[in-house]
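Deviation from plan, reported transparently: adenosine-5'-[phenylalaninyl-phosphate] complex.
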Amino acid sequence: MLQENLQQLKNRALDEIKKAGDLNQLRDLEIRYLGRKGELTKILRTVGELPAKERGRAGDLANQVKQALASEIGRVKKSFGEKGEGGVGEKEWIDVTASKMKDGFGHLNPVSTVQYELEDVFSSMGFMVLDGPELESDYYNFEALNIPSWHPARDMQDTFYVEGENLLMRTQTSAMQVRAMEKYGAPLRAIVPGRCFRNEATDARHEHTFYQLEGFMIDKNISFANLKAVLEVTAQKLYGKDTRVRLRPKYFPFVEPGVNGEVTCFLCKGKGCRLCKNTGWLEIFGAGMIHPNVLRAGGINPEKWSGFAFGFGLTRLAMLKYGIDDVRLFCGGDIRFLGQF
Ligand code: FA5
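Because the crystal trials were delayed, the predicted structure below was used instead.
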Protein backbone atom coordinates (compact mmCIF):
# COMPACT_ATOMS: atom_id res chain seq x y z
CA MET A 1 0.00 0.00 0.00
CA LEU A 2 2.67 2.49 1.05
CA GLN A 3 4.80 1.30 -1.84
CA GLU A 4 1.99 2.07 -4.26
CA ASN A 5 1.40 5.49 -2.72
CA LEU A 6 5.07 6.32 -3.04
CA GLN A 7 5.20 5.24 -6.68
CA GLN A 8 2.12 7.31 -7.52
CA LEU A 9 3.49 10.33 -5.71
CA LYS A 10 6.79 9.99 -7.55
CA ASN A 11 5.12 9.82 -10.98
CA ARG A 12 2.85 12.74 -10.23
CA ALA A 13 5.68 14.86 -8.90
CA LEU A 14 7.99 14.10 -11.87
CA ASP A 15 5.18 14.96 -14.23
CA GLU A 16 4.56 18.29 -12.53
CA ILE A 17 8.28 19.08 -12.43
CA LYS A 18 8.43 18.46 -16.17
CA LYS A 19 5.56 20.86 -16.74
CA ALA A 20 6.92 23.61 -14.47
CA GLY A 21 7.31 26.78 -16.52
CA ASP A 22 9.67 28.78 -14.32
CA LEU A 23 11.76 28.80 -11.17
CA ASN A 24 8.91 29.96 -8.97
CA GLN A 25 6.74 27.00 -9.93
CA LEU A 26 9.68 24.68 -9.27
CA ARG A 27 10.25 26.16 -5.84
CA ASP A 28 6.55 25.68 -5.05
CA LEU A 29 6.81 22.02 -6.05
CA GLU A 30 9.91 21.59 -3.96
CA ILE A 31 8.05 22.89 -0.93
CA ARG A 32 4.92 20.90 -1.71
CA TYR A 33 6.75 17.54 -1.95
CA LEU A 34 10.01 17.90 -0.06
CA GLY A 35 9.31 20.73 2.39
CA ARG A 36 8.98 20.16 6.16
CA LYS A 37 5.25 19.77 5.78
CA GLY A 38 5.52 18.35 2.25
CA GLU A 39 3.69 15.25 0.96
CA LEU A 40 6.76 13.02 0.86
CA THR A 41 7.94 14.17 4.26
CA LYS A 42 4.57 13.24 5.69
CA ILE A 43 4.85 9.72 4.24
CA LEU A 44 8.40 9.38 5.52
CA ARG A 45 7.12 10.17 9.01
CA THR A 46 4.66 7.28 8.88
CA VAL A 47 7.43 4.79 8.09
CA GLY A 48 8.20 4.53 11.77
CA GLU A 49 4.67 3.29 12.50
CA LEU A 50 4.95 0.29 10.14
CA PRO A 51 5.56 -3.24 11.44
CA ALA A 52 9.30 -3.81 11.90
CA LYS A 53 9.72 -6.18 8.93
CA GLU A 54 8.19 -3.72 6.43
CA ARG A 55 9.89 -0.68 7.87
CA GLY A 56 13.32 -1.20 6.23
CA ARG A 57 12.08 -1.64 2.67
CA ALA A 58 9.52 1.17 2.95
CA GLY A 59 12.17 3.52 4.35
CA ASP A 60 14.59 2.69 1.51
CA LEU A 61 11.95 3.28 -1.10
CA ALA A 62 10.82 6.57 0.41
CA ASN A 63 14.40 7.81 0.48
CA GLN A 64 14.97 6.77 -3.13
CA VAL A 65 11.87 8.73 -4.16
CA LYS A 66 13.05 11.71 -2.15
CA GLN A 67 16.46 11.68 -3.82
CA ALA A 68 14.97 11.22 -7.27
CA LEU A 69 12.69 14.20 -6.84
CA ALA A 70 15.40 16.39 -5.29
CA SER A 71 17.85 15.64 -8.06
CA GLU A 72 15.24 16.22 -10.78
CA ILE A 73 14.22 19.55 -9.22
CA GLY A 74 17.93 20.52 -9.03
CA ARG A 75 18.55 19.58 -12.64
CA VAL A 76 15.57 21.56 -13.95
CA LYS A 77 16.45 24.55 -11.74
CA LYS A 78 19.88 24.62 -13.35
CA SER A 79 18.36 24.52 -16.79
CA PHE A 80 16.35 27.61 -15.81
CA GLY A 81 19.61 29.36 -14.99
CA GLU A 82 19.45 29.69 -11.20
CA LYS A 83 22.97 30.54 -10.06
CA GLY A 84 22.45 30.83 -6.33
CA GLU A 85 22.47 33.99 -4.24
CA GLY A 86 23.83 37.06 -5.92
CA GLY A 87 23.97 35.39 -9.32
CA VAL A 88 22.03 36.22 -12.40
CA GLY A 89 18.68 34.49 -12.05
CA GLU A 90 16.11 33.51 -14.59
CA LYS A 91 14.44 36.92 -14.57
CA GLU A 92 17.66 38.84 -14.47
CA TRP A 93 19.86 39.18 -17.49
CA ILE A 94 22.60 41.39 -18.73
CA ASP A 95 21.97 43.32 -21.90
CA VAL A 96 25.49 43.79 -23.22
CA THR A 97 24.18 46.02 -25.99
CA ALA A 98 22.56 48.54 -23.62
CA SER A 99 24.15 52.01 -23.61
CA LYS A 100 25.77 52.90 -20.28
CA MET A 101 23.90 54.99 -17.77
CA LYS A 102 24.29 58.76 -17.98
CA ASP A 103 27.69 59.17 -16.42
CA GLY A 104 28.62 61.19 -13.37
CA PHE A 105 32.35 61.31 -13.98
CA GLY A 106 34.14 64.31 -12.59
CA HIS A 107 37.08 66.17 -14.03
CA LEU A 108 39.85 68.43 -12.83
CA ASN A 109 38.91 71.69 -11.18
CA PRO A 110 40.10 74.61 -13.37
CA VAL A 111 42.49 75.65 -10.59
CA SER A 112 44.11 72.18 -10.68
CA THR A 113 44.44 72.35 -14.46
CA VAL A 114 46.37 75.62 -14.23
CA GLN A 115 48.39 74.33 -11.27
CA TYR A 116 49.50 71.19 -13.17
CA GLU A 117 50.40 73.29 -16.23
CA LEU A 118 52.64 75.48 -14.07
CA GLU A 119 54.13 72.47 -12.29
CA ASP A 120 55.13 71.07 -15.70
CA VAL A 121 56.72 74.34 -16.78
CA PHE A 122 58.72 74.75 -13.56
CA SER A 123 59.70 71.08 -13.28
CA SER A 124 61.20 71.40 -16.78
CA MET A 125 63.40 74.21 -15.38
CA GLY A 126 64.59 72.08 -12.45
CA PHE A 127 62.22 73.34 -9.73
CA MET A 128 61.02 70.94 -7.01
CA VAL A 129 57.29 70.91 -6.24
CA LEU A 130 56.74 71.29 -2.47
CA ASP A 131 53.67 71.10 -0.27
CA GLY A 132 53.29 73.02 2.98
CA PRO A 133 50.93 73.24 5.98
CA GLU A 134 47.76 75.31 5.64
CA LEU A 135 47.64 75.73 9.43
CA GLU A 136 50.88 77.60 9.87
CA SER A 137 52.83 79.25 12.66
CA ASP A 138 52.92 83.02 13.02
CA TYR A 139 56.69 82.67 12.66
CA TYR A 140 56.81 81.18 9.14
CA ASN A 141 53.86 83.14 7.80
CA PHE A 142 55.02 86.53 9.11
CA GLU A 143 58.04 86.82 11.45
CA ALA A 144 60.51 84.90 9.31
CA LEU A 145 59.33 86.86 6.28
CA ASN A 146 60.51 90.12 7.80
CA ILE A 147 57.02 91.00 9.10
CA PRO A 148 57.31 91.36 12.91
CA SER A 149 54.16 91.61 15.02
CA TRP A 150 54.15 95.42 14.97
CA HIS A 151 54.55 95.66 11.18
CA PRO A 152 51.75 97.52 9.33
CA ALA A 153 51.99 94.98 6.47
CA ARG A 154 50.09 92.56 8.73
CA ASP A 155 46.99 94.69 8.18
CA MET A 156 46.98 93.76 4.49
CA GLN A 157 46.79 90.06 5.31
CA ASP A 158 44.42 89.48 8.21
CA THR A 159 43.56 85.82 8.69
CA PHE A 160 41.97 83.24 11.03
CA TYR A 161 43.91 82.58 14.23
CA VAL A 162 43.91 79.61 16.59
CA GLU A 163 43.48 81.18 20.00
CA GLY A 164 46.49 80.93 22.30
CA GLU A 165 48.45 78.62 19.97
CA ASN A 166 50.35 81.13 17.82
CA LEU A 167 48.91 79.28 14.85
CA LEU A 168 46.99 80.74 11.92
CA MET A 169 45.60 79.80 8.54
CA ARG A 170 48.40 80.80 6.19
CA THR A 171 47.77 83.92 4.17
CA GLN A 172 50.37 83.19 1.53
CA THR A 173 52.41 80.30 0.17
CA SER A 174 55.46 82.51 0.89
CA ALA A 175 55.24 80.86 4.34
CA MET A 176 57.10 77.93 2.79
CA GLN A 177 60.15 79.99 1.81
CA VAL A 178 61.98 79.73 5.14
CA ARG A 179 60.78 76.17 5.78
CA ALA A 180 62.30 75.11 2.44
CA MET A 181 65.55 77.00 3.09
CA GLU A 182 65.89 75.31 6.49
CA LYS A 183 65.28 71.89 5.01
CA TYR A 184 67.22 72.06 1.72
CA GLY A 185 69.69 74.95 2.13
CA ALA A 186 71.24 76.62 -0.93
CA PRO A 187 71.23 76.27 -3.91
CA LEU A 188 67.48 75.85 -4.08
CA ARG A 189 64.76 75.89 -6.73
CA ALA A 190 61.21 75.12 -5.66
CA ILE A 191 57.59 75.95 -6.30
CA VAL A 192 54.79 75.61 -3.74
CA PRO A 193 51.21 75.47 -4.97
CA GLY A 194 48.58 75.59 -2.24
CA ARG A 195 45.56 76.99 -0.50
CA CYS A 196 45.64 80.28 1.37
CA PHE A 197 43.17 82.07 3.60
CA ARG A 198 42.40 85.67 4.44
CA ASN A 199 39.88 87.36 6.65
CA GLU A 200 38.62 90.02 4.35
CA ALA A 201 35.37 91.31 2.89
CA THR A 202 34.68 89.11 -0.11
CA ASP A 203 33.87 90.47 -3.53
CA ALA A 204 34.23 89.34 -7.15
CA ARG A 205 38.05 89.28 -6.82
CA HIS A 206 38.53 88.41 -3.14
CA GLU A 207 37.63 85.20 -1.30
CA HIS A 208 38.43 83.95 2.21
CA THR A 209 39.96 80.83 0.61
CA PHE A 210 41.99 80.84 -2.60
CA TYR A 211 45.05 79.29 -4.22
CA GLN A 212 48.53 80.67 -4.80
CA LEU A 213 51.65 79.27 -6.39
CA GLU A 214 54.92 80.39 -4.83
CA GLY A 215 58.33 79.95 -6.40
CA PHE A 216 61.89 80.74 -5.41
CA MET A 217 65.37 80.24 -6.74
CA ILE A 218 68.52 80.71 -4.64
CA ASP A 219 72.00 80.33 -6.06
CA LYS A 220 75.25 82.25 -6.64
CA ASN A 221 74.83 85.59 -8.48
CA ILE A 222 71.09 85.37 -9.01
CA SER A 223 69.80 88.70 -10.25
CA PHE A 224 66.63 90.45 -11.34
CA ALA A 225 67.45 89.44 -14.92
CA ASN A 226 67.09 85.76 -13.91
CA LEU A 227 63.75 86.51 -12.29
CA LYS A 228 62.46 88.21 -15.41
CA ALA A 229 63.75 85.46 -17.71
CA VAL A 230 62.16 82.63 -15.70
CA LEU A 231 58.82 84.43 -15.47
CA GLU A 232 58.87 85.35 -19.14
CA VAL A 233 59.43 81.70 -20.14
CA THR A 234 56.56 80.75 -17.83
CA ALA A 235 54.20 83.38 -19.23
CA GLN A 236 55.05 82.35 -22.80
CA LYS A 237 54.34 78.70 -22.03
CA LEU A 238 51.01 79.71 -20.52
CA TYR A 239 49.86 82.35 -23.00
CA GLY A 240 51.92 82.02 -26.19
CA LYS A 241 55.39 83.03 -27.36
CA ASP A 242 54.63 86.70 -28.04
CA THR A 243 53.79 87.26 -24.36
CA ARG A 244 55.93 89.87 -22.60
CA VAL A 245 56.42 90.47 -18.87
CA ARG A 246 56.30 93.92 -17.29
CA LEU A 247 57.61 94.51 -13.76
CA ARG A 248 56.52 97.55 -11.75
CA PRO A 249 57.70 98.44 -8.25
CA LYS A 250 55.63 97.13 -5.35
CA TYR A 251 56.38 96.78 -1.69
CA PHE A 252 56.49 93.36 -0.02
CA PRO A 253 58.49 93.21 3.25
CA PHE A 254 60.17 89.91 2.31
CA VAL A 255 61.69 91.05 -0.99
CA GLU A 256 63.94 93.98 -1.84
CA PRO A 257 63.32 95.30 -4.43
CA GLY A 258 59.77 94.07 -4.94
CA VAL A 259 57.57 94.17 -8.02
CA ASN A 260 54.12 93.53 -9.37
CA GLY A 261 54.34 91.33 -12.44
CA GLU A 262 52.11 91.84 -15.44
CA VAL A 263 51.90 89.89 -18.70
CA THR A 264 50.59 90.89 -22.12
CA CYS A 265 46.83 90.39 -22.12
CA PHE A 266 46.28 87.08 -23.91
CA LEU A 267 42.80 88.06 -25.07
CA CYS A 268 43.64 91.27 -26.97
CA LYS A 269 47.37 90.59 -27.38
CA GLY A 270 48.15 93.91 -25.72
CA LYS A 271 45.77 96.12 -27.70
CA GLY A 272 43.45 96.77 -24.74
CA CYS A 273 40.13 95.08 -23.98
CA ARG A 274 37.52 94.49 -21.27
CA LEU A 275 39.63 91.76 -19.60
CA CYS A 276 42.71 93.96 -19.13
CA LYS A 277 40.64 97.09 -18.54
CA ASN A 278 42.11 98.57 -21.73
CA THR A 279 45.67 98.57 -20.40
CA GLY A 280 46.95 95.67 -22.54
CA TRP A 281 48.45 94.09 -19.38
CA LEU A 282 47.23 91.56 -16.85
CA GLU A 283 48.62 91.62 -13.32
CA ILE A 284 49.29 88.02 -12.31
CA PHE A 285 52.09 87.84 -9.76
CA GLY A 286 54.09 89.56 -7.05
CA ALA A 287 57.86 89.02 -6.98
CA GLY A 288 61.25 90.37 -6.00
CA MET A 289 64.76 89.59 -4.76
CA ILE A 290 64.61 87.70 -1.46
CA HIS A 291 65.36 90.06 1.44
CA PRO A 292 68.69 89.32 3.25
CA ASN A 293 66.78 88.99 6.55
CA VAL A 294 64.68 86.18 5.08
CA LEU A 295 67.75 84.34 3.76
CA ARG A 296 69.31 84.67 7.22
CA ALA A 297 66.14 83.31 8.87
CA GLY A 298 66.49 80.28 6.59
CA GLY A 299 70.13 79.80 7.63
CA ILE A 300 71.51 81.00 4.28
CA ASN A 301 74.34 83.54 4.13
CA PRO A 302 73.18 86.56 2.06
CA GLU A 303 76.81 87.55 1.39
CA LYS A 304 77.29 84.33 -0.51
CA TRP A 305 73.89 83.56 -1.98
CA SER A 306 71.10 85.53 -3.55
CA GLY A 307 67.69 84.62 -4.84
CA PHE A 308 64.36 85.69 -6.21
CA ALA A 309 60.82 84.75 -5.17
CA PHE A 310 57.46 85.15 -6.84
CA GLY A 311 53.85 84.35 -6.01
CA PHE A 312 51.03 83.78 -8.52
CA GLY A 313 47.37 84.02 -7.59
CA LEU A 314 46.46 80.57 -8.98
CA THR A 315 42.73 81.14 -8.64
CA ARG A 316 43.15 84.39 -10.53
CA LEU A 317 45.03 82.61 -13.31
CA ALA A 318 42.18 80.09 -13.62
CA MET A 319 39.67 82.97 -13.72
CA LEU A 320 41.59 84.63 -16.54
CA LYS A 321 42.03 81.43 -18.49
CA TYR A 322 38.37 80.39 -18.33
CA GLY A 323 36.75 83.83 -18.33
CA ILE A 324 35.29 83.42 -14.82
CA ASP A 325 34.21 86.79 -13.52
CA ASP A 326 33.57 86.04 -9.84
CA VAL A 327 36.07 84.28 -7.53
CA ARG A 328 33.27 83.35 -5.10
CA LEU A 329 31.97 80.76 -7.57
CA PHE A 330 34.93 78.49 -6.69
CA CYS A 331 33.77 78.03 -3.10
CA GLY A 332 30.05 78.20 -3.92
CA GLY A 333 29.62 74.43 -4.12
CA ASP A 334 27.34 74.68 -7.17
CA ILE A 335 28.08 71.68 -9.35
CA ARG A 336 26.64 73.49 -12.40
CA PHE A 337 29.54 75.94 -12.18
CA LEU A 338 32.20 73.21 -12.24
CA GLY A 339 30.36 71.25 -14.90
CA GLN A 340 31.13 73.97 -17.45
CA PHE A 341 34.87 73.29 -17.67
C1 FA5 B 1 51.36 87.83 -1.72
O1 FA5 B 1 50.59 87.06 -1.19
C2 FA5 B 1 52.83 87.58 -1.78
N1 FA5 B 1 53.14 86.46 -0.94
C3 FA5 B 1 53.29 87.35 -3.21
C4 FA5 B 1 54.79 87.38 -3.33
C5 FA5 B 1 55.52 86.20 -3.29
C6 FA5 B 1 55.46 88.60 -3.48
C7 FA5 B 1 56.90 86.22 -3.37
C8 FA5 B 1 56.84 88.62 -3.55
C9 FA5 B 1 57.55 87.45 -3.50
P1 FA5 B 1 49.47 89.41 -2.58
O2 FA5 B 1 48.85 89.70 -1.28
O3 FA5 B 1 49.48 90.49 -3.59
O4 FA5 B 1 50.95 88.90 -2.41
O5 FA5 B 1 48.74 88.13 -3.20
C10 FA5 B 1 49.21 87.51 -4.38
C11 FA5 B 1 48.04 87.09 -5.27
O6 FA5 B 1 47.16 86.25 -4.53
C12 FA5 B 1 47.16 88.27 -5.70
O7 FA5 B 1 47.66 88.86 -6.87
C13 FA5 B 1 45.84 87.60 -5.97
O8 FA5 B 1 45.83 87.03 -7.27
C14 FA5 B 1 45.84 86.47 -4.96
N2 FA5 B 1 45.00 86.87 -3.82
C15 FA5 B 1 45.34 87.58 -2.72
N3 FA5 B 1 44.29 87.73 -1.90
C16 FA5 B 1 43.26 87.08 -2.47
C17 FA5 B 1 41.90 86.83 -2.10
N4 FA5 B 1 41.39 87.27 -0.96
N5 FA5 B 1 41.12 86.13 -2.96
C18 FA5 B 1 41.62 85.64 -4.11
N6 FA5 B 1 42.90 85.80 -4.52
C19 FA5 B 1 43.71 86.53 -3.71
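The chain has a mean pLDDT of 90. We consider this an acceptable substitute for the interim report.
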